[in-house]
Design a protein that fits this description.
By secondary structure, the protein is α/β, with parallel strands linked by helices. 31% of the residues lie in helices and 25% in strands. Strands 1-2-3-4-5-6 form a 6-stranded mixed beta sheet, with helices on both faces.
Length: 159
């Protein structure tokens, strides 16, 4: 667990081949600087599979947004997957992604945080609300032609 004083904390767990990083508090320049090294390690692997759980983020600034974009670019460059979980439960993250027009740029897990993807047992797919076995809002690049979750309009899914 990374703890940056009183304003930010992160916790990491691995479920199967997926790394889940739960962020809480203020994701600002201090938090982004502290997280950069670890996220670079995760996204430096071949085909990284990463879920960032943002449901407990109370504030995010341009440095936090830059960190999310950098993580997305690095993950895509290595043919991996990045999902953001809990965006609907974090008004500050949802607002910033909407204001910047980046909401649709990210693959969003539906439901409450990473548990919507992994379910209460921690097994991948245990909490999936869709027919195709994935709660994400966008098709996955490695599966061209795969349809997105029903009602996958980015704004309506997380609102």
């Amino acid at each position: 667990m990374v703890n940056q004083g009183w304003s930010f904390a992160s916790r990491e767990r691995v479920v199967g081949a997926t790394t889940v990083v739960e962020l809480s508090g203020e994701v600002d320049i201090l938090a982004a600087t502290g997280l950069r090294t670890r996220l670079d390690e995760i996204t430096g692997a071949h085909r990284p599979d990463l879920v960032l759980d943002l449901r407990h983020v109370t504030f995010i600034d341009c440095c936090g947004l830059s960190m999310l974009c950098r993580t997305r670019r690095r993950t895509e460059a290595k043919a991996g997957r990045l999902r953001l979980a809990g965006v609907a439960e974090s008004p500050s993250v949802l607002r910033l992604l909407r204001l910047t027009g980046l909401l649709s740029a990210f693959d969003l897990c539906l439901g409450l945080g990473a548990d919507a993807y992994f379910g209460p047992t921690g097994e991948p797919g245990a909490g999936n609300p869709t027919d195709d076995g994935c709660p994400c809002t966008r098709p996955h690049p490695e599966e061209a032609g795969r349809r997105a979750a029903p009602g996958a309009s980015a704004d309506s899914t997380v609102a």
